[in-house]
Each structure stands twice: as C-alpha cells, then as structure tokens.
Amino acid sequence: xxxxxxxxxxxxxxxxxxAAGATAxxxxxxxxxxxxxxxxxxxxxxxxxxGRPVTIGFSAPAADxxxxxxxxxxxxxxxxQFPEVTFEATEGTNDxxxxxxxxxxxxxxxxxxxxxxxxxxxxxxEIATEAMSAGIPVVNLDRVFASxxxxxxxxxxxxxxxxxxxxxxIADTLRSRNVSNPVIVEIAGIDSLELTQERSRGFRExxxxxxxxxxxxxxxxFTAATGQEVTAQILQAEGQIDALxxxxxxxxxxxxxxxRQAGREEEFFMVGGAxxxxxxxxxxxxxxxxxxxxxxxxxxxxSAISLARLLAQGSGLGGLAEHEVPASITTYSAVVTRDNxxxxxxxxxx
Length: 350
What we know:
- The protein is α/β, with parallel strands linked by helices.
- The chain has 2 domains: about 5-155 and about 300-330, Rossmann fold, CATH 3.40.50; about 160-295, Rossmann fold (3-Layer(aba) Sandwich), CATH 3.40.50.2300.
- It is about 40% helix and about 20% strand.
- It has 11 helices and 14 strands.
- It has helices at about 5-15, 65-80, 95-110, 120-135, 160-175, 195-210, 225-235, 250-260, 275-285, 300-315, 340-345, and strands at about 30-35, 40-45, 55-60, 85-90, 115, 140, 155, 185-190, 215-220, 245, 270-275, 290-295, 330, 335.
- Helix 9 (about 275-285) links the parallel strand 11 (about 270-275) and strand 12 (about 290-295).
- About 50% of the residues are buried.
- GO terms for molecular function: carbohydrate binding.
- Keywords: Signal.
C-alpha cells in the first residue's frame, strides 16, 4: 500500500473521510505536577498507545500574567506526556505582528498541527486561515478567530457562563442573607476584548433575572495595579457595598489590596474569576473577603495539545460515537466555594 504523508492525511481529514488510526481518549483523568514554577494539569490516559510521530507548533501571548503563564506551562507539560510528539513553542508576545511572524515560522517548518491562543483573534485570523489552507489543522485556544475557516477545532472557556454563574452565586448569597436593594460592584478585565464583554453580559443578565443590577462597574485591564486603582475609586464613591465580582484572580491581588487598605473586608463578600491557587487557599481558610471564584481554568491548554495530537495523527476522540474530533469544545465555569474547594485545588494555577 502507498504510504500517505502526514500532510496528505491532514488534507484527507479536512475533506471528511474516515479518520485513520485508533481513537484515543482525551481525558480519562487529570494528573498534577507541582513545582516551584507552579502547578500544571495534564490529560492522562494509560491505555492510549503512542501514535505516529508528529510535530505540534504552539503560539500564545506573553506569560506576563499568572493565567497566561499557566497556559504555556500546561501546554508544554501535556506535550511531554506523548513520546511521539515533538513540541515547538514560539516565544510568547503581546505584539500582534510578532505573533503573526511566529506562526508563519511554524507554518514554514511544516508542523503537523498548530495550537494558537491569539493575542487578538481578529488580527491572527488571516495567518491561521493560511495554515488551514496549507493542510495544517489549527486548534484555536480560547480567544476565538474571526472566521471558522481559521481553525479546525476551538476549545476555550465559557465567558458568558462565567459571568452568569458569578451572578447566580451572588444573587443566591444575597437572598440567603436577606439583603434587599443590594449594591453590587463589578471589576472587569479589558473592555475591548469580546471575552470581557461576554463575562459582563452574563453577569448582568443573571442578576437581572433575579431582579438585581450592577451598581458600579470599572475595567481594570487584567492587571493588579489597575485593579487596585479602580477599586479604590469605587470604594470612595460607594459608602456601602454588599457584593463584588472581580473577573480575574490575578487582577484581584490589587482589588483585595484596595479593600484591605480601606478597612472594609468585613463589609461585603467578593467573588473572583479564573481559579488561582492563591484564591482557593483563601476560600478554604475562610479568613478573607473573597468567598468564591468562578473557574476559567488554564488546563484547557492541556486539552488543546491532546486535540492537536489527535488531529495530526488522524484519530478521533474516544468515548464519542462520531469518528471525528468535535469542531468546538467549551469548558465549564464551576463556582468554587468553601464547600467544594478541595475538589478543585488540583487545577488551581500559580
């Protein structure tokens, strides 16, 4: 029989023929590796035999943020789980043109699959589409490209659901405390990003469904410094607050600092976002203003690498009736509280 090249296998896969090779389960269980550089969560499956050798390229923004740093660490750790995978990661950058150049370099190296978390989905759409046209399957991680033609599979968090679950938790908690006409504050991320807009929309609509509303809102650009600054401004403007939702736990370092400086830790409760280990430890200890966080776990990067491996090898996803890897996978934004925090400590990122 004539041997097909990896690239031809990918092209045949895109045309919709049956996937070659045995299927492999994406997530039988999760493994955790703790070190001084932080915690990584990997997908493990003891029954998945190594497939044919493949090279996976990876591109993401700069690891200048705890969550983004965990994305890169998880992707690298997951690739290490597969002896047949060669992992080529480009240097992280928040410069759109530099990321485009980095992805182009991976295309020129003829990698078998690409995992791309774009700094700006719209700006990276053209280069990702170019990769797809060249027969390289693209796994679009989290921040979505502007066109489905730019990716074979998307995997990411549920930003609307994240906001909605934060809103439901706050509404339920206020109701249990018999708080009427509550003052609810929202500290958002980067307002120009669709993910921030979706988080805010989910939060607002969940509150409105319970007859509540956001009293004050500020964007903090996903930085601790800006989080502290805008929270201090809101605390000066609002003499009484009942609940606060902060979109991002790293940003929350500054938010919490402003609350402590104002001496208002006992006045209201705070809900975080993303699921850092620092915040989970505080929730477990129950000695801080923050009482819950809504997950947006960087473990999605581990799953993205596993999906890229399956696509590159022409395999399907175990446990599903379909022969092909799904076109879209959305993670769930669970609410982590003192009651269930032990179940989620393993996925808390540094």
